[in-house]
Amino acid sequence: MLQEPEPGDGDEEAPVRLGEVAADASVMLDTLLELQTRDTAIDRLTHRRDTLPERAALESVQAELTAAAAQLAEAAARRDEVAREEQRFDDEARSLEDKAAEVERRMYSGEVSSPRELQALQADVDQLRRHRRGLEDRELEVMERREAIDAEVETLRARVGELESEAERLGVALGEVEGEIDEELGGERAARDEMAATLDAALLDDYERCRERARGVGAARLSGNTCQGCHLSIPSVEAERIRKSPPGTVAHCDNCGCILVPSAAPAAGSAATE
Ligand SMILES: [Zn+2]
Predict the structure, then answer these.
(1) In this predicted model, what pLDDT tens digit does every residue of 190-205 receive, in sequence order?
(2) Is-contact 217 34, C-beta < 8 A?
(3) 230 CA from centroid of ligand 1 (Å)
């Protein structure tokens, strides 16, 4: 079983042994490297999924859509307010015309015969119609304002429609890319879990801790004096010691802390076969 390295021990880490059967232990470290390959692929896919340009584009269009929809609602409210004002002038003008028509009806009904009274009624009619024309002029001004806002509302409505289509298109595109990545992730995770199940639990824990510390690299090949995790060299004496350790010895890189796996070539007289 894997032994925890003694903490607080200033000297080099005591070599820890993995399992009793050297060949199995060696295989286990090689499997650990394959697990690292899978985890790296999973990390890369997850990062890609999190930073998809399609998602950024969708979020940007959604933000534009929210802003345009708010502008549309504001313009429509302004238009409705002006339309109500227009309607009020229209109603008032109609009411004045009805009154003028009513006075005219009396004038021509024969009920009124006094010229003075007829003159007074005619003056009423003229006054009502002047007032009506005044209201109609104001109604016309309001109508022009309302028409300008109508055009604004139409432009905004068209913009909102375009953005909605664009958001839908991007949503579908994002869903497709996410689906592809999720399928790939599913495959990688299944393969990863299958490998992890064959590994010593303490070794797996050690590996996960190293991965957290070293930005995703928990295990790497020791190639010559170079750790393939951080691509830095370790002292050749240390590299030699690791290579000559009994197979399955768990060693760590002094630089990045990851588990170093020497190549499976025969070392120190023990033939580690696969
Ligand atoms: Zn390293």
Answers:
(1) 999 999 999 999 999 9
(2) no
(3) 4
Summarize pLDDT for 231-270 with one digit per residue, the tens. Answer: 999 999 999 999 998 877 899 999 999 999 998 654 444 4
- Can you tell me the distance from the alpha carbon of 50 to that of 158, in angstroms, rounded to the nearest whole number? 32
Beta strands at 259-262 and 251-252: parallel, antiparallel or unpaired: antiparallel
Host H or E run for residue 146: helix 115-197
* Adjacency order of strands within the sheet including 259-262: 226-227, 219-223, 259-262, 251-252
Q: Which domains does the chain have, with CATH numbers?
A: 22-47+200-262 (1.10.287.1490), 53-193 (1.10.287)
135, 89 contact by CB (below 8 A): yes
**Burial degree of 202 (CB within 10 A; 0-12, 13-18, 19+):** middle
How confident is the model over 6-18, as pLDDT tens digits? Answer: 444 444 444 455 6
The Å distance, Cα 229 to ligand 1 centre, comes to 5
Cα gap 63→57, rounded to integer Å = 10
- Angle value at C-alpha 87, between 86 and 91, nearest 5 degrees: 125
d(Cα 99, Cα 112) in Å, to the nearest integer? 17
Q: What is the mean pLDDT of the chain?
A: 89
Average pLDDT over residues 138-163: 97
Q: What residues flank ion ligand 1 with Cβ within 5 A?
A: 227, 229-230, 253, 255-256
- In this structure, is the dihedral angle defined by the CA atoms of residues 86, 87, 92 and 97, taken in order, positive or negative? positive
Q: How far is the CA of 14 from the centre of ligand 1 (A)?
A: 18
Report d(CA 122, CA 104) in Å as an integer.
Answer: 8
What is the pTM (predicted TM-score) of this model?
A: 0.68
How far apart, in whole angstroms, are the C-alpha atoms of residue 265 and residue 271? 8
